């Protein structure tokens, strides 16, 4: 038997924008076990509900993570709206859908870039991020912010998008779609890229189910589940199919995410076509009393928001279960038996968001 | 503007929400693209001149930040990016946030914003380059003084 050794990975590592620490137990070059330790970004923001009232807390919820900022804010708002029995206007629902899908576009493009960076394809990284900047420009034009938007409030949205702006966005999306086809060819058909992704980090359907994975990581292992089908925001009016793949390796995860990019563009087109005119917010009176679980499909998978109010302006409890937290056991499973050189890519294929996980 | 040397950056995510981190990365990618001036985001503290740190300090990352800072060779400049790195920001009242980066290491430049915009981050880096030259000149002067005394 070969000698066992332990290689520390992180918390500061060139491939990770965020700190996470893994102790990799190796037998020669092969990883036998990976022991994670997290908590480097723990802030304790769930306890802030005791100091900020339920309206102010929207801003804290948006800062759970700067990548899915919009969806965190929306998830929290929808949970409180359910507790208070507020029905938001249809236009606000469509606005939320459009911004959600724009978030997914920017998040997946960012991930594609980071993946390319992890296997050393620098120009592909730059191309992905160049395209992502166009989405950020759309965000800046519509909300005023590039990564943190603060357009959600309890009872609706704070900003509206007029017809000209939406038409302009569709034009930009057409360009992005064209460029995306070129980009996806390199990710999916390039021999060098395929050699780093195909057959690496295999997770079976049974494992994906047993370990409780979510999002594209789960769908790449063949499980057909997407929280958007529950029909929050305006998703019940929109026609889309869940994208899955049966391969279960890193290539499948890339493929699922690339297909989701095209799907997001399609959803935005449908939403722009169907968006009704009218109010974007309703006035909210009183304080939340009761509890609710809200489930939202983020770019990384399903996030759960639990809100409990007691009839005062301060909530009793807010709990967030984020997708990366659910995906960590699956990631550790894919690391077992892998080569040390593949570890950075395997960590990236779950699209880790440590800020969400540790809050 | 007199850039005597293209500075290399070290980026560490303290306890930020990722917003400032992706903006730091966006600085090095097309549209902003500081890499064309030779400003490179390196992963190795021993190669870095400027330490960009985002997010506040908590009890677990305090030692990591100190260690990264001590591994950087002199002269070095620390830039606190975003309001959380400046003084804790929106998370100031959280139980696990000790405060801004200046609680553990000396900070030279503060870049405000939530999230800090790439323009202001680049502005911070440009200011850091000037400071780097100044610190280098001071180091040289001190070295020659101590040399004479020998």
UniProtKB/TrEMBL annotation, chain A:
PROSITE patterns: COMPLEX1_49K (PS00535), NI_HGENASE_L_1 (PS00507). Pfam families: Complex1_49kDa, NiFeSe_Hases. Residues 120-282, 287-359 form the NADH-quinone oxidoreductase subunit D domain. InterPro entries: ComplexI_49kDa-like, NADH_Q_OxRdtase_suD, NADH_UbQ_OxRdtase_49kDa_CS, Ni-dep_hyd_lsu, Ni-dep_hyd_lsu_Ni_BS, NiFe-Hase_large. Keywords: NAD, Oxidoreductase, Translocase, Transport. Coiled coil: none annotated. SUPFAM superfamilies: HydB/Nqo4-like (SSF56762). The keyword Aminoacyl-tRNA synthetase does not apply. It comes from the Bacteria. Signal peptide: none annotated. Belongs to the complex I 49 kDa subunit family. This is Nickel-dependent hydrogenase large subunit. It comes from Caproiciproducens galactitolivorans.
From TrEMBL, chain B:
It holds the Pfam family Oxidored_q6. Its cofactor is [4Fe-4S] cluster. GO terms for molecular function: NADH dehydrogenase (quinone) (non-electrogenic) activity. Residues 17-127 form the NADH:ubiquinone oxidoreductase-like 20kDa subunit domain. Keywords: 4Fe-4S, Iron, Iron-sulfur, Metal-binding, Oxidoreductase. The keyword Flavoprotein does not apply. InterPro entries: Complex_I_20kDa-like, NADH_UbQ_OxRdtase-like_20kDa. Its EC number is 1.6.5.9. Belongs to the complex I 20 kDa subunit family. This is NADH-quinone oxidoreductase subunit NuoB. It comes from Caproiciproducens galactitolivorans.
């Amino acid at each position: 038997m070969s000698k066992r050794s332990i290689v520390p990975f992180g918390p500061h590592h060139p491939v990770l924008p965020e700190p996470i620490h893994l102790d990799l137990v190796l037998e020669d070059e092969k990883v036998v076990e990976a022991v994670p330790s997290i908590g480097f970004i723990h802030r304790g923001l769930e306890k802030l509900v005791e100091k900020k009232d339920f309206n102010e807390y929207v801003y804290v919820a948006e800062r759970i993570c700067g990548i899915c900022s919009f969806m965190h804010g929306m998830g929290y708002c929808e949970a409180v709206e359910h507790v208070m029995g507020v029905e938001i206007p249809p236009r606000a629902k469509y606005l939320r859908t459009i911004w959600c899908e724009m978030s997914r576009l920017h998040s997946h493009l960012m991930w594609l870039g980071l993946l390319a960076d992890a296997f050393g394809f620098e120009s592909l990284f730059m191309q992905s991020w160049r395209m992502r900047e166009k989405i950020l420009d759309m965000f800046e034009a519509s909300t005023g912010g590039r990564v943190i938007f603060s357009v959600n409030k309890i009872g609706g949205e704070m900003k509206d998008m007029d017809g000209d702006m939406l038409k302009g966005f569709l034009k930009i999306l057409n360009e992005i779609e064209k460029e995306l086809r070129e980009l996806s060819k390199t990710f999916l058909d390039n021999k060098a890229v395929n050699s780093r992704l195909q057959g690496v980090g295999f997770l079976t359907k049974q494992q994906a189910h047993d370990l409780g994975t979510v999002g594209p990581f789960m769908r790449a292992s063949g499980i057909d589940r997407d929280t958007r089908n529950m029909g929050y925001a305006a998703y019940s009016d929109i026609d889309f199919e869940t994208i899955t793949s049966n391969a279960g390796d890193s290539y499948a995860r890339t493929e699922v995410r690339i297909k989701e990019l095209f799907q997001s563009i399609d959803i935005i087109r449908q939403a722009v076509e169907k968006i009704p005119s009218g109010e974007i917010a309703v006035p909210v009176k009183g304080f939340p009393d009761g509890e609710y679980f809200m489930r939202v499909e983020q770019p990384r998978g399903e996030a759960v928001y639990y809100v409990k109010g007691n009839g005062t302006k301060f909530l009793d409890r807010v709990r967030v279960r984020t997708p990366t937290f659910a995906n960590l056991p699956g990631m550790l499973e894919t690391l077992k038996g892998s080569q040390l050189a593949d570890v950075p890519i395997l960590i990236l294929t779950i699209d880790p968001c440590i800020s969400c996980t540790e809050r | 503007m007199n850039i005597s040397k293209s500075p290399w950056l070290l980026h560490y995510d303290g306890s930020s929400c990722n917003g400032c981190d992706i903006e730091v990365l966006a600085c090095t990618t097309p549209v902003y693209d500081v890499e064309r001036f030779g400003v490179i985001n390196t992963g190795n503290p021993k190669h870095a001149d400027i330490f960009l740190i985002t997010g506040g300090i908590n009890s677990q990352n305090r030692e990591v930040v100190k260690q990264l800072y001590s591994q950087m060779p002199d002269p070095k400049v620390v830039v606190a990016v975003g309001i959380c790195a400046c003084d804790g920001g929106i998370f100031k009242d959280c139980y696990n946030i000790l405060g801004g980066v200046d609680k553990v290491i000396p900070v030279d430049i503060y870049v405000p914003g939530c999230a800090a915009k790439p323009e202001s981050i680049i502005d911070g880096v440009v200011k850091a380059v000037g400071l780097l030259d100044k610190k280098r000149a001071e180091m040289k002067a001190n070295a020659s003084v101590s040399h004479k005394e020998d």
